[in-house]
Amino acid sequence: MLVAADQAIAWRGPMAAGALTQMMDANWGPADTLVLDLPPGTGDVQLTMIQKYRPSGAVIVSTPQDLALIDARRAIDLFVKAGVPIIGLIENMAGYVCPSCGEISDPFGTGGAEAAAAELGLPFLGRIPLDIRVRVASDAGQPPAAGNGPEGVAFMGVADKVGDWIKGQG
After folding, report:
1. Whether pTM exceeds 0.90
2. Residue 40 CB contacts under 8 Å (≥ 6 apart), including other chains
3. CB pairs under 8 A, 24+ apart, for 162-165?
4. What are the beta bridge partners of residue 104?
5. Which helix (H) or strand (E) covers residue 30, if one does?
């Protein structure tokens, strides 16, 4: 939304951190909770968030495969060392239901984030399926969680657990 859809956003770390600052300092009205989807990793955006805004908690999202979980563990370590509580882990792109035959396959594996959560003593918040309806709803600007299908149920299950954590902080 910052530039035309066909233009690259070639930002170095400080520029991305500046954009985060502008977004965080915006007038969000009477909102009591702000959820930000940060890029993966442990770079300038995460460091700016931690140092400047001290988030109440962090939700770590990872696909199930080992390589993605390495980055997720690094993010967990960064937030823990900074004193930011980890609300829990979400496994993204978990399970694909073939639209033709209904068979479920796991192209990225399954259970990796849940196993990591158990190993680290952190809550497992749920799985978000690899589902065309998530992509279609997102592209249309409609929250996938608003749907009544399995993808909506998955998102709402995660949202309920995060909401419970937030209520427990107050």
Report:
1. no
2. 71, 75
3. 162/35, 162/59, 162/87, 162/88, 162/125, 165/57, 165/87, 165/88, 165/123
4. 97
5. none
